[in-house]
Amino acid sequence: MKFLLIACLGSLVFAQQGPADLQGPGPFVRDLKADVLRDFPELCFSSTNFRLFLENQSWSLFPFCGKAECVKSGADYIERVHDCGPQPKNGEACTIANLAELQRNDTILEYPSCCPKYVCPDGVTLEYPTQEEIKAEIQKQNQAALQAAKEAAAAREAAGPQAAPGTA
Ligand SMILES: *[C@@H]1O[C@H](CO)[C@@H](O)[C@H](O)[C@H]1NC(C)=O
Ligand SMILES: *[C@@H]1O[C@H](CO)[C@@H](O)[C@H](O)[C@H]1NC(C)=O
Q1: Over the stretch 88-129, which tens digit does the pLDDT of each residue have?
Q2: Where in the sequence is the signal peptide annotated (predicted)?
Q3: For ligand 1, mutation pick of 55, 57, 58 (most atoms within 8 Å of CB)
Q4: Where are the domains of the chain?
């Protein structure tokens, strides 16, 4: 299940910008502004594996289930992300046909093999979160990350004087 959760969080992160087609299960493709390093303005930087990529090269987004591609658009670079898209809201009504495969810990499945394949009983249709629901969930996660960073900074500050007993 850990892998599914990661895949789910990953798709939320990557849903942050650009239009997404939410009509049904994949393929989900969206364009993000590429990460570019100051010293390498002609290359896309991948923060998942800390490597630089040339125009038209693609790379795996492992541990997320997806792949990205470095695309030049005018003077700008775009990271074109392909992933499994949002998790269905009523996924528990269905079974995941490739669950055993997804849960194996001795193989790394690349996109699109790492996407869950839902099989639903007759009459059950998968429902996907709306664009607004996805945005709200991302905002919630961003707030939580910001709050955690602030709390960590406050804890470091509070621990500061104790960490230097000689000065007390
Ligand atoms: C990248 O792909 C596009 C579209 O296929 C092509 O027009 C362009 O020349 C390619 N760029 C490089 C550097 O291969
Ligand atoms: C991987 O799976 C095997 C078999 O299910 C299990 O024995 C092993 O502890 C697992 N390893 C990790 C790192 O989870």
Answers
A1: 999 899 999 999 999 998 888 999 899 998 888 888 888 988
A2: 1-15
A3: 55
A4: 21-119
What does the alpha-carbon distance between residue 138 and residue 119 come to, in Å, rounded to a whole number?
27
Residue nearest to ligand 1 atom 3, measured at CA = 56
Specify the length of the chain in residues: 168
The residue whose CA has the least distance to atom 5 of ligand 1 is: 56
User: Which residue pairs from 98-104 have beta carbons closer than 8 angstroms and sit at least 24 positions apart in sequence?
Assistant: 102/3, 102/4, 103/1, 103/3
- Measured in Å, residue 10 CA sits from the centre of ligand 1 at 28
What is the CA(85)–ligand 1 centre distance, in A? 26
